[in-house]
Description:
single chain; alpha/beta; four-stranded parallel sheet; three-stranded mixed sheet; 11 helices; globular
Amino acid sequence: MSMEPVPERLKEFFSEHPKVALAYSGGSDSSYLLYAALACNVEVKAYFIKSQFQKKTELDHALDLAESLGQEVDVVHIDVLDDPSIAANPADRCYLCKKKLFSKILEESKKSGLDTVVDATNASDDASDRPGMKALTELGILSPLKESGITKPMLRDLSRKAGLKTWDLPSDSCLATRIPSGMVLTAENLERTERTEYLLSTLGLREFRLRTTSEGARLETIDSDKETVEHLKNDIERIVLGEYASLEYGRRDPRL
């Protein structure tokens, strides 16, 4: 592989850590990190955690991208709803969930003789917006993209240069982020979110979130999709109101 799309500081990180376990989601960040590790001839084992919080399409896309790089993925299944403290959906749910998931990756990686676990947090990620990052620090998880000063715009440019089809993949977050804090997380409300968002994506919507509210649902979209949403309004309401009692519209915070 060409080393051109791998910055020097990231090469240095992998030179210092030649054997790593990667928390891999198939998103643009972790896909690039997997590419970079392979380009640097690192011994890397990729772990995809599949819980009720991850969409089935995420797993499909993650496996597809890894296959294109000639890399196998270990899929680890976890029942997050079996943990009452997470299912209760408290304000620190993300922290609790990250602690559980990365503890599992640490456990699995040690079986393979890999003591260094890395994740794809980048230099644009703000710890104040991502409470789960505290769990990574506590567990000793390393974030080579962040340590190398690679921001999200840089990462997309590097991914494009590397020929990765994930270079312009919209950012996503787990299904639990669609349910308001304090509302109990169930298989039913998570599956409803996944099902409805999938149907909305078939209309051509890309960068959106469908969030559950106390009354029904709120469709959040980016400003550039305003005209598209207006054009598709009848189809959107047909889909959403088939699952929720009401629908409101709003602007999506690109960080969430």
